[in-house]
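Input structure tokens:
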């Protein structure tokens, strides 16, 4: 399945697994009877070798643990690293979990195959951070048949909501609306509300709900302003490198940019490098208004310098909510289907006040 911007290639894969002894033995047998194409037990396709599988180093093989399979998107951004660490620090042996962590390596097919494998391993729960919304229906149906509860985290899926327990994450559309509303307020405060405004948007991965929601929210608000014009809206795949490359191309084509909206901080960091090289001044003292999403610590530093003007927070610390869902399900409690995390909007004006409390 295609993931990312068109003409993108995806990198190699890497998997780190933990597994209980019981399940290890089951998997071991499966390999010998020529079982699944991706078992996590050594004979996996697509370059996953047994040397990559660290199960033997797992400290505990104890059936008393709750086994959680966690399928991550990859390592596309600093936000993602914070999100991964949050899950690794939450689902620990000390807290009663055996975590099987899978790096999706920005490959949606890889994620889906890993989900089939986790079902074959009969994990107790699956947590999926899906790269893209589509393609999950069949594997979620199988998980349901096999009685494995699934929690969708961060980005959403387009599959029927009855196929998973709940979704925990950000309200991406609201984030997009908040970004556009900040722009509206800023222009008004500075008496610039009637100015003609040329906007460039750097979008996240095509098909990812974070990109879909933010773009929808942004466009809904942008359309309300007759004097706001989107010059171009291009996918830069949530990565810093692509943010820089895409912005370089845009700068060659357009000389009259007033606003850059980047759908995450890392793409904005890349776009800033491209603007530096092109001699384009941005931020509070420059000609280009800079808006992004995530609110990373590095973004706070740039906001304090006035280079980044606003970053709409996307909170990566959602593992605690996912764990609460598991605890509730263990006790037979009902869980809310949609669980939004708390988020704020930070600007060059209030960044200094908040930077000391930032966790990522
Ligand atoms: O899905 C959340 C988005 O994915 C974050 O905004 C981005 O930085 C990450 O890669």
């Amino acid at each position: 399945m295609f993931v990312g911007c068109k003409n993108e290639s995806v990198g190699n894969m890497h998997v780190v697994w933990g597994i209980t002894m019981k399940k290890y033995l089951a998997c071991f047998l499966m390999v010998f009877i020529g079982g699944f194409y991706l078992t996590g037990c050594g004979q996996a396709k697509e370059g996953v070798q047994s040397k990559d599988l660290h199960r033997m180093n797992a400290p505990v093989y104890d059936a008393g643990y709750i086994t959680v399979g966690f399928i991550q998107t990859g390592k596309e951004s600093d936000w993602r690293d914070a999100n991964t660490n949050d899950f690794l620090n939450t689902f620990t042996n000390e807290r009663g979990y055996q975590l099987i962590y899978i790096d999706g390596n920005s490959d949606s097919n890889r994620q889906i195959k890993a989900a089939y494998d986790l079902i074959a391993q009969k994990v107790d729960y699956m947590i999926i951070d899906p790269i893209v919304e589509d393609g999950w229906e069949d594997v979620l149906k199988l998980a349901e048949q096999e009685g494995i509860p699934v929690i969708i985290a961060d980005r959403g899926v387009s599959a029927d909501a009855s196929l998973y327990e709940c979704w925990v994450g950000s309200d991406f559309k609201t984030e997009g609306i908040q970004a556009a509303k900040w722009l509206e307020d800023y222009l008004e405060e500075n008496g610039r509300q009637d100015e003609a405004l040329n906007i460039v948007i750097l979008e996240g991965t095509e098909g990812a709900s974070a990109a879909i929601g933010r773009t929808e929210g942004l466009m809904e608000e942008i359309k309300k302003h007759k004097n706001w014009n989107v010059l171009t809206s291009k996918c830069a795949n949530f990565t810093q490198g692509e943010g820089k490359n895409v912005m370089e191309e845009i700068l060659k084509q357009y000389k009259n940019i007033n606003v850059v909206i980047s759908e995450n901080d890392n793409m904005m960091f890349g776009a800033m490098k491209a603007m530096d090289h092109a001699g384009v001044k941005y931020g509070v003292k420059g000609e280009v208004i800079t808006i992004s999403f995530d609110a990373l610590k590095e973004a706070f530093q740039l906001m304090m310098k006035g280079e980044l003007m606003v970053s709409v927070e996307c909170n990566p610390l959602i593992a605690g909510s996912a764990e609460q869902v598991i605890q509730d399900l263990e006790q037979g409690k009902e869980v809310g289907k949609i669980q939004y995390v708390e988020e704020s909007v930070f600007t060059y004006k209030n960044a200094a006040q908040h930077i000391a409390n930032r966790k990522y």
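Confidence is low (pLDDT under 50) at residues 6-61. Residues 15-170+316-342 form a domain with the Rossmann fold fold (CATH 3.40.50.2300).
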